[in-house]
Amino acid sequence: MGDKKDIKSLPLELLEEELVSAGERAFRARQMYEWMHVKLARGFDQMTNLSRAFREECGRKYHYTALRTVRVQESALDGTRKFLFELSDGNLVESVWMKYRYGNSVCISSQVGCRMGCRFCASALNGLERNLLPSEMLDQIYAISLFTGERVSNVVVMGTGEPLDNYGNLLTFLRMLTDANGLHIGQRNVTVSTCGLVPEMRRLADEGLQITLALSLHAVTDEKRKKLMPVAQRYRIAELMEACRYYFERTGRRITFEYSLAGGVNDTKEDAMGLVRLAGPLHCHVNLIPVNPVKELSYVQPEAPGIREFQNILEKNKINGTIRREMGRDIDGACGQLRRRHMSAVQDMGGDKEC
Predict the structure, then answer these.
(1) Which member of 16, 94, 129, 136 is catalytic?
(2) Whose CA is closest to 278, among 335, 312, 321?
(3) Lowest CB count within 10 Å: 100, 131, 152, 220, which one?
(4) 173 and 163 in contact (C-beta within 8 Å)?
(5) Per-residue DSSP letter, 318
(6) Enclosing H/E stretch for 16
(7) Of 114, 121, 335, 355, which is the active-site residue?
């Protein structure tokens, strides 16, 4: 990218300012914005209603984000597709396309790697490489839309990375994704996951958005959560619950608790009752996630009867708890697995590419 400005990360009003300051008329910005964010052009050369001279000048001045598809895996079980994309600097990110009765959902990454260090997650095994730009988050959706030929109706920022650790770029992405001048995906169809960065959760609550916030909880006591998630050393569960309460009060949007079930770790009846005590006062939805096995990690799924019993305890206590349908289990379904496998293959072949 070098010193070139990333034009695809500019909201419409900033794009207008950019082009007007360069001597262009404001309507040029609207034309270009439509090409980038509605028609999903892969470069300036596809913007055929703009003059060749103008397109060539833009190519000299601006960086144009267009992710390169490195690999696509399709599940034989449910049609889920997992994408591995290469960024302009050679780094790799993963995204997942899932087809549901209510529409097509895409789960995107917000960072290259992750520094949160959650013990059961493959994303954090190599640490954080860098944050993704708004254009790089958007283009995961655009590239998948073009590949499948189908419209995306729901977006989940729950792939590799901690979204709230990339707060400024995330917020720009959210506003552009839901902007009427772009794909115009409804805010209520967007979910952002967090492992629990309390100040950023409170800050997000004040942004005037109507997105769903999903808290990766995974344990109901501070002691157990510290063993699973290093972020728990910074923020106690009591602080998290206050931040959740604040988010609900400010937005009216119900929080979702993400709870990964690991056999013999956090799947006891006592754990279930602890979850009831936390979720009940906040009227939270609980999403139970049987852990995806990762060969470098030791966590395993509970047996199916134990998972159902855990869910039954929640429901008997009037907590809406669902067991996440496992999508793409046969195609490196867990966050970070496909990227790690590709990187290992490159290294085994003697490749010198840094990812």
Answers:
(1) 94
(2) 321
(3) 100
(4) no
(5) T
(6) helix 12-21
(7) 335
> How far apart, in Å, are the Cα atoms of 308 and each of 146, 183, 268, 289, 290?
39, 38, 12, 12, 11
Among this protein's residues, is 335 annotated catalytic? Answer: yes
Quickly count helices (H) and strands (E) in the chain: 11, 14
The residues with which 320 forms a beta bridge, in sequence order, are: 285
Residue 120 is predicted with a pLDDT of 78
Using alpha carbons, select from 209, 272, 283, 210 the residue that is nearest to residue 241: 283
The amino acid occupying position 92 is L
Mean pLDDT by 10 residues, the chain (355 residues): 89 97 93 98 97 95 97 91 97 95 94 89 82 98 97 96 98 98 97 98 98 97 94 96 97 96 93 97 94 70 92 96 74 57 50 36
Mention every residue, 6+ apart, whose C-beta is less than 8 A from residue 70: 84, 85, 86, 92, 342
Burial label for 18, CB within 10 Å (0-12, 13-18, 19+), is middle
* DSSP label of 100: E
Which pLDDT score is estimated for 249? 96
Residue 15 near residue 5 (C-beta atoms within 8 A):
no
CA distances from 163 to 84, 298, 323 (A): 19, 26, 23
Segment (H or E) for 169: helix 167-177
CA distance 238 to 200: 16
What are 114's two structure tokens? 């992750």
Written as six digits, the tokens of 28 are: 């040029």
Q: What is the CA radius of gyration of the chain?
A: 21
pTM for the model stands at 0.90
Residue for token pair 């996951």: 193
Percent of the chain at pLDDT exceeding 70: 89
Report the run of H or E that residue 148 belongs to, with start and end: helix 134-148
Clarify whether 326 is annotated catalytic: no
φ/ψ (deg, to 5) at 36: -75, -45
- Per the CB < 8 A criterion, the answer to whether 98 and 107 are in contact is yes
